[in-house]
Design goal:
With 360 residues, the protein is of the alpha/beta class. Helix content is 20%, strand content 26%. An eight-stranded mixed sheet has the order 9-8-10-14-17-20-15-16, with helices on both faces. A three-stranded mixed sheet has the order 1-6-5. Strand 15 and strand 16 form a beta hairpin. The longest helix has 20 residues, at 313-332. The protein is globular and about 60 Å long. It starts with a strand and ends in a 13-residue tail after the last strand.
Length: 360
């Protein structure tokens, strides 16, 4: 169970009644609790709020971002991350979390960040200074993938974004689902990113990711997300999912929009390649790179783009699915049962995946 201590440092308001106290979790959910209750578990992000034993309940300031969703009150000063040139055309945030010392360790995530960094710099021309990588191997405490540092990295990615900019968000780590409480998920579950400290600080939901790096994206700017984690099909909560029409044998766009919330951009284009569907798990394996453990999506994505010039989005999606399917057969045997991992493509807008060239 995650424990989220409430201290005078990160609390600003107190609200009490004679019988009930109202406590807001850092994810934004407001709880009403009887006086005398010492802990409460947030029904949204599953953090456990520990209330002080004095006569009051602290109410942390809600996480309200500038776009009207959440505004985060930092617990410590922001690091002096030098921004890209004021109007830098390319920048990327890469997050790899191995959860060292935890029972659910992910072995290939840091390797995935290394591979993707090399790919972006040496293949796609991203300047080294335009990449912000968060892993547990970093000595700078602001570059460790904690919940707060990841939120800060998202803000850095979007700072000064304008038409012509090309942004990349790469994530390799744990992904999970939690019950949806705002009615914007067709399956009733929100997808979530698990920071290295998620046991104590809680998870980052797809609602927040969408609000932070998708909705503010301006006209003429584009964002590509490569998400190598379990249950990641709708990780960015984008409005359209690319689905296979089994009758006709071609891909079509499935409309995932709901009446409860707008999940599109501010005119820009957001595209996400995910390791698998929301009800599937993703593969970490040495099958691709000898003795080096990598995520199946990460390796297959880089290999496909490097090996085929003029790749379209449809061709890239087909290559990812074929490569991972064949690798699973090779590992498990042709007749052995296996858990399918089918990479997914989602977007903020519909387009012809068979003719649109893949460009970052």
């Amino acid at each position: 169970m995650a424990v989220l201590p409430i201290t005078p440092q990160n609390t600003t308001n107190i609200r009490k009644t004679k019988e009930m106290a109202r406590v807001r979790c850092t994810c934004g959910v407001l709880l009403s609790l009887p006086q005398g209750v010492s802990t409460a578990r947030c029904p949204r992000c599953y953090a456990t709020i520990v209330c002080p034993s004095n006569d009051g309940y602290y109410l942390p300031e809600a996480n309200q971002y500038n776009n009207g969703y959440y505004h985060h009150q930092p617990l410590r000063p922001l690091p002096q991350l030098s921004p890209i040139s004021v109007h830098g055309k390319k920048r990327a945030v890469l997050i790899g979390i191995s959860y060292q010392g935890q029972p659910n360790r992910v072995k290939g995530s840091v390797n995935d960040v290394r591979f993707m960094t090399h790919f972006l710099v040496n293949w796609l021309g991203f300047p080294n200074e335009s990449l912000l990588a968060l892993t547990e191997e970093e000595r700078n405490p602001y570059l460790v993938p904690t919940k707060q540092n990841i939120r800060m990295a998202f803000r850095w990615l979007m700072e000064g974004c304008q038409s012509g900019d090309s942004l990349v968000f790469f994530y390799s780590g744990l992904g999970s689902q939690v019950p949806d409480f705002d009615g914007d998920e067709a399956d009733g579950f929100d997808e979530s990113l698990c920071p290295v400290d998620y046991h104590t600080e809680g998870k980052i939901l797809d609602d927040e990711i969408n609000a932070t790096i998708v909705r503010p994206l301006p006209y003429g700017a584009k964002l590509h997300a490569i998400i190598d984690t379990c249950r990641s099909g709708t990780f960015l909560d984008l409005p359209f999912m690319c689905m296979m029409n089994n009758r006709q044998g071609n891909y079509i766009w499935d409309d995932h929009r709901t009446s409860t919330a707008y999940k599109g951009t501010s005119g820009g284009t957001a595209i996400c390649f995910s390791a698998c569907d929301d009800n599937q798990t993703s593969l970490d394996t040495t099958a691709f790179a000898s003795d080096v453990v990598t995520g199946a999506l990460t390796y297959s994505f880089i290999e496909a783009v490097q090996n085929e010039r003029g790749l379209t989005y449809g061709r890239l999606l087909h290559s990812l699915r074929t490569n991972i399917r064949e690798t699973q057969k090779r590992l498990n045997g042709p007749n052995a049962p296996s858990t399918p991992q089918v990479p997914q493509l989602s977007s903020s807008e519909k387009f012809d995946i068979y003719s649109k060239p893949f460009t970052i």
